Amino acid sequence: MTTLIESDEHKSLRAAVAAFAETHPHPHTLDPEDNQRLWQAAAKLGYIGVNLPEAYGGGGAGITELALVLEELGAAGSPLLMMIVSPAICGTVIARFGTEEQKREWLPRLADGTRLMAFGITEPDAGSNSHRLTTTARRDGADWLLTGRKVFVSGVDIADATLIVGRTDDARTGKLKPCLFIVPRDTPGFERRPIDMELSAVERQFELVLDDVRLPADALVGDEDAGLLQLFAGLNPERVMTAAFGIGMGRHALGKALDYARERTVWKTPIGAHQAIAHPLAQAHIELELARLMMQKAAHLYDAGDDAGAGEAANMAKYAAGEACVRAVDQAVHTLGGNGLTREYGLGRLITASRVARIAPVSREMILNYVSHQTLGLPKSY
């Protein structure tokens, strides 16, 4: 049953993560070593692997707790983007569908932060449409040969491997079905090219080229016939975690705006006393709180094993959080005026970053399409 009231355990976890983030502030630099130190410090306290099974070194909790951790880190200005990818997507897929050998090999190291895994699904001509992916895998004896291209893959250069979504032949239908493969970073034929982004982030974006990448049979994660079930086992947590990322960012921006609105005085009155300033900030807070409720619902449904219910709620949560994040950041910058664009306050960089919550991993328009035909029963437009 979904609860709208956080348990004492969750409140304690939220307070502990917030305290950790305050004492380990994320520097406003693009230094990967600083980011790695923050990652390792969080992992040491069990935050990175809180959702992974205890039997493999994790915290034994769920996406509910992992999303809580990411939200609080983001609210303190210390978001760790790879939490969406490494423990949430890749760790979840391996924990649910991986072989015993894959679990022993990857889960303890993902949990303790000594290994990272990236995730590659998006393609230049298919976006995230799994039915149009052209990256294919074919058998060659006992091995697999993987060929294709991926774009906008985060953190490939710092990840030890990338979980690649490819497609294999279905002997029963003659059609291609999605499958997932673990591709180590230095595998021959696996090339990466950085994408020149306007977005300022430690985690760089890459285009991947796979040219007959030879993989052993055990590189395949789970059952070759599981198809979309395995894929969405990772995509639903991705949407929940992206919501947490957006909510945390929005809370961080709002906090800075509130501090400024309380302290900045014009004609002997704090600017926050004026409704033109106060009401939009109050509205931003309300929207972030509403997005958090849907995020918590989605996470609870996923952890309860309701994949279908979680899919609908996770998409809605991601949509609501993306919209709330963009508006909170915009209003925060507007509240500070010119100061909102200075490096001192650190809000200007969030203008670009907040758009990510609307665009990735699925655009708001595709979520509206999903809700239109999956929830409301309207005819599909595509």
The residue ranges in which pLDDT falls below 50 over 5 or more consecutive positions are: none
Q: Which word captures the global form?
A: globular
What strand line-up does the widest sheet have? 2-3-7-6
Which structural class fits the helix and strand makeup? alpha+beta
Rg over alpha carbons: 21 Å
Q: How many helices in DSSP terms?
A: 10
Largest sheet: 4 strands, antiparallel
Percent range for β-strand residues: 15-25%
Helical residues, percent: 40-55%
H/E series, N to C? HHHHHEEEEEEEHEEHHHH
Distance between the termini: 35 Å
What is the averaged pLDDT score? 92
Number of strands: 9
For the structure shown, list the relevant keywords.
alpha+beta; 49% helix; single chain; 382 residues; 9 strands
Textual characterization of the structure:
- This protein is of the alpha+beta class.
- α8 packs antiparallel against α9.
- The mean pLDDT is 92.
- A four-stranded antiparallel beta sheet has the order 2-3-7-6, with no helix packed on it. Strands 1-4-5 form a three-stranded mixed beta sheet, with helices on one face. It has a two-stranded antiparallel sheet with strand order 8-9.
- β8 (265-266) and β9 form a beta hairpin.
- It has helices spanning 8-23, 32-44, 63-75, 82-97, 100-111, 228-263, 275-303, 307-336, 348-359, 364-375; strands spanning 117-120, 136-140, 143-154, 161-169, 176-184, 190-194, 205-215, 265-266, 269-270.
- The chain contains ten helices and nine strands.
- The protein starts with 7 loop residues before the first helix and ends in a 7-residue tail after the last helix.
